[in-house]
Amino acid sequence: MSAGTRSRGTRFLRARWRVVLRLACWSVLETGQTFLTGYAPARALDAGFLAGRAGVGLAWLGVAGIGVLLGAYGTARVYAAVAALVEPLRDRLVERVVRRGVRKADRGALSGLTQQVEIARDTFAGLVMVSRSFVFTAVGALVGLFSLAPLLLLVVGPPLLAGVALFAATLRPLARRQEAFLVADEALADRLGAVCPGLRDVTATGAEERIAEDCGRLVDAEFGAARSLARWSVLRVASLAAGGQLPIVLLLAAAPWLLARGVTTGALVGALAYVTQSLLPALHNLVHGLGTSGSRLTVVLRRLTSADAENMEGGEEATRRDESGDAASRQRESAARRAFTPAVAPALSLSGVTFAYGPASAPVVEGLDLVLAAGAHLAVVGPSGIGKSTLTGLVAGLLRPSEGQIEVYGEPVPSAAAEARRVLIPQEAYVFSGTVADNLGHFRADPVPEAELLAAAEAVGMGPLLERLGGPGALVEPAALSVGERQLVALARAYLSYAPLALLDEATCHLDPWAEERAERAFAARPGGTLVVVAHRISSARRADRVLVMDGTGTAFGTHDELLHVSPLYRDLVGSWTPVPARRSEPALALRDADGVDAVARPGLAGDGRHVVAHGPVGQVQASGDLGDGGSLRRQR
Ligand SMILES: Nc1ncnc2c1ncn2[C@@H]1O[C@H](COP(=O)(O)OP(=O)(O)OP(=O)(O)O)[C@@H](O)[C@H]1O
After folding, report:
1. Which intervals of the chain are annotated as region Disordered (predicted)?
2. What spacing in Å lies between the alpha carbon of 90 and ligand 1's midpoint?
3. Which residues have CB under 8 Å from 31's CB, separation 6+?
């Protein structure tokens, strides 16, 4: 406990000396009861039952009973006195906390702090009870032992003193370790509290490993603190054994010696009663109560009473953390910027990559070799469920191959360097509550200049949406955006990142073919940028300068024209894809049937302009949908 907290505590108690005195007086009754715990049975035996005077024995037992009743009355009064001591402490702490909470208008902090006040109040009450009880019980028992036979003090006193001394010696180091454990526990709880609600963000940004590492460090810190605490707690158990249990053994072992020196049988039984009924439970409560609650109270009180200072320190600490965080992000960023400079290594290289979702499952990717030069534009095609997303997950480092190596711009996957060089835009675009600028600049540690934001939005076709939302400073309500609009936000965000390799995993599937084309061309034209697109339209594959056809565990790789000749699967895929009609003046709406058949419609073709009916040129596709802003569709069949 710090000197400041100690002196405040002394002042607090001195100002309430009357309550302390009242508490002491009522506690004397407890001492009386403790005295009778051993003395009455001793007299009942020696002067009563063993002397053949059962009446006297019963009378002494009756006295012990009265002692218990008086002790119980005293304990009830003690509780009232403890309340008179504890409640003012609570009031003072609450006053402090509320004053500070109101000043800062921080309701979250206020509720957290008032909860700590309750902990402080309860812990303080517990401490007053156990330490007071130990003192008065010990006095009662020692006086009782002395009255029965001073020799008994010789047997019980030394181990009791040794136990208490050992306990006192461990108090401070134990409190420090308890505090270290609490701090580590809270740090972990804080971190998990922040991470768990944001798990989607973590996955969306591919930060699992970094977060796992970070949380792992906190888990290790708490584990270390718990081990150290446990080691010191062994000494606490030793002090209990020495002070409470050893006297019992000594009394029994020394019984013949004591009896030979005039100690009566009743006195021996009385001494055992003192140790087992009073001293041991009181010491047990003291060791556990003071050992655990004492350090908890120290921590809570220090926080509550010096929170202003701590807040300042906390602020500085946060700034320091921010600064070091900034430094780390600056480092990552400069690594990423460097990645944009012309690279000698290929943008992507896979050699002998094999991956299966489970040890017993068939591999989704098997022995795949692929080299993609920097600046290339690759389309990955294949039937549904063939492994296209799995491949992007492998390249992004979200999945680990069981065999083979993957490198992104010469950096092994997974690694932070490879992570900084790629950005994955999944089909399910993620938009979070915040401003448009927050969302778009999410992959950038440096503030993105507004002109750059606008240019990126324009490049990927998000311009009209940005305007409708109210510009970069406007707040985004994710639920109010259509899936297509969310994809536009995700595309602009990825476009702004410094990662040169963009992985679009059906990231434009909710956009119309023209919006998709615009976005893909924008990514392909990023200076030094390499693009891998999981294509769901033939137009997308035709735009790419290379196509990877996935066909079970086999693959074919080449240009569109080459593959039309060599890959029957590619020919089939091209045949089943619907050609995109020439662009009309009014925006078109593209629908895709569950079987992957496209249908294209124009608003106004049927319906009221927002609700349209689309007739598919292939098969009998019929669907109606709501043409939201930005041309996206919520389809009802
Ligand atoms: N987490 C997973 N656990 C087990 N199997 C999975 C998991 N994710 C995908 N698969 C299986 O792996 C195979 C390849 O899936 P993947 O999503 O990579 O295919 P895809 O070609 O991207 O499909 P689509 O075009 O429909 O998105 C499928 O059979 C799928 O069921």
Report:
1. 310-337, 611-637
2. 59
3. 136, 137, 139, 140, 143
